[in-house]
Amino acid sequence: MRYPAQFKKTAINGRSIVIGLICVSLICFTEAYNDYYINNTWLAAHHFPIVAAFLLMILVLGVNIFAKLTRFFSPLKASELITIWCMMIVVASLPTLGLAAYMLPTLVGLTYYATPENEWIELFHHHLPEWLIPRGT
Q1: Which of the pair, 36 or 74, is modelled with greater confidence?
Q2: Among the four 30, 36, 113, 137, which has the fewest Cβ within 10 Å?
Q3: Sign of dihedral through CA atoms 103, 108, 112, 35?
């Protein structure tokens, strides 16, 4: 039986978004703690984000098998797992070398390295919004 286009189910549903957001939050917290506090192995600064693969394995081998055995809730479908995986790999690089490791020192460095000799305050600071960088006294 054919259904009109507006009645077709999509891969992106509320359950996959909520689980994806939980996984993304775990990735951001774990990476920041692991990379900057413990100074351990980079979990997502490689071409393959280890932490995202680990969470996907937990979802497939842990949550889905538990759901099939207990029938407490329906297991995650492949389309939901793909949605969750895409959310995780997009966000995996943000707390590490993809964004935070370069952006934060650059923003602080504009004020920290400004001296009367290089005149950075006069040259650059009036082009930047007040909320973007810390202003020295």
Answers
A1: 74
A2: 137
A3: negative
